[in-house]
Amino acid sequence: MTRDLTQPEILTELEPVAETALNRHMSMVKEWHPHDYVPWDDGRNFAMLGGTDWAPEQSRLSEVAKAALITNLLTEDNLPSYHREISENFSRDGAWGTWVGRWTAEEARHSAVLRDYLVVTRGVDPVALENARMIHMTNGFAPPVDRVNSAGAAGFLYSVAYVSFQELATRISHRNTAAVCDDPVADRMLQRVALDENLHMIFYRGICGAALDLVPDQAVEAIDLIVRNFRMPGTGMPDFRRNGVLMAKHGIYDLRQHLEEVLQPVMRQWNLFGRDGFGPRGEQARERLAAYLADLETVQIPRFEEHRDRALARERARVGLPR
């Protein structure tokens, strides 16, 4: 017989798990400093200080690399919104509070190093970048689902389910962005950021797995809703659709990667489709999730890939490359 718990009860029950995960994280995380990853010798003043302002020909980045770096940076910029969501759904006490603070501090380095790199190397228009940052941070981040179940625990469970997938998705996006930058400095920087994201994913994935053991029906309902309504945290930023299409077309982050490199590995780690202990609600949620994943694999991904291949063929034809 499964049981529902309130959010405070879940936090209390899972705090020993959070403490163990926090200690493991602190034993694995490597100290690094954003300034070490920026080619400062490439920098020069802008017009206000007697130099020259940005011009498109100054950038050495492809359009795909620009789109990916801007998207990744603006996503990292929205950290205040993510901190608010996590802190509201976790606790400020004990291991929970320590983790929220540590995670926020580590995440803050990502926007610092990405922005410094782009401004110093003149990779993108810094005025347009700042205007986009102002818009995106003013709008903030809205969670993909905003429902509270009868026990009042959905906020925490939705949060840990979402970040279990999102941190891994972000890691993959940073890693694949490195491959299109054609710059060893950017490669080192993005690989370093991706390592942070992977450790964050491991923390949240472990907490969500423990929640599945503790409150299986509530947890799988949260996972089901998150997966079926998943949106990357950059959704809504200026030019997100255009940049997202470019990134998907050129293999930085697309639907197949989302399924095969994010959703499936995390759910395998939880043994979501092999475990017992669900009640009727949990079984229904698992069945909905299985049906959605099957549709993603057999309908949505083939449809996307067909459209993508046609678009790439048109691009190659325009520039005279073989198909």
TrEMBL record:
Q: Could you tell me which InterPro entries the record lists for this protein?
A: Fatty_acid_desaturase-2 (IPR005067), Ferritin-like_SF (IPR009078), RNR-like (IPR012348)
How does the record describe its quaternary structure? Homodimer.
Q: SUPFAM superfamilies under this entry?
A: Ferritin-like
The Swiss-Prot or TrEMBL record describes its family as follows: Belongs to the fatty acid desaturase type 2 family.
Q: Cofactors per UniProt?
A: Fe(2+)
Its source organism is: Nocardia rhamnosiphila
> Out of the domains of life, which is the source?
Bacteria
**Identification of the protein by name:** Acyl-ACP desaturase
The record's Gene3D superfamilies line, in alphabetical order, gives: Ribonucleotide Reductase, subunit A (1.10.620.20)
* PANTHER family the record matches: ACYL- ACYL-CARRIER-PROTEIN DESATURASE-RELATED, STEAROYL-[ACYL-CARRIER-PROTEIN] 9-DESATURASE 7, CHLOROPLASTIC
Supply the alphabetized keyword list: Fatty acid biosynthesis, Fatty acid metabolism, Iron, Lipid biosynthesis, Lipid metabolism, Metal-binding, Oxidoreductase
